[in-house]
Write the structure tokens for this entry.
Amino acid sequence: MPTSKPTKPASPEAIRAADAALKKKQTNYPEPFASRVAGREKRPLGDVFGLTNFGVNLTRLKPGAVSSVRHAHTRQDEFIYVLEGHPTLVTDAGETPLAPGMCAGFKAGTGNAHHLINRSGKDVTYLEVGDRSPGDGADYPDDDLKAVQRPDGGWTFTRKDGKPFSA
């Protein structure tokens, strides 16, 4: 009786997270916002495995870098877990120093804008997890910026009054 060999899965079943490829385009923000996230590197771990319900990124912030423009999602929950380093979480409530092993979550629709800042002299590494609910949007209370998720999953950024950014 012939034996069958297992077939190799279309995507890997396990990888070393740090070996995942860097995101090809590190940000979708238009200028002048894109340059604010210089020093941020994302490795989209969820994409490696073809995950569609939620995304997972292994993110590194170099000293002085920020995770994003401070924002709040309308439909997508977010969660972060600090692996290395000491970032500062900035929310509507103020600043909270974080350390390895700490985590934070941001429920969609609350309007509680947030981001991380690396004010230390060493890299910060954390996992960020977010669901992929369609029709999301993001508000940026500190900036003239608004984001709306397109049906293809991409993002359209405009000014708060709906005017586009000039190319």
User: Anything to note?
Assistant: The radius of gyration is 18 Å. The CA atoms of residues 94 and 139 lie 17 Å apart. The chain is about 0% helix and 35% strand.
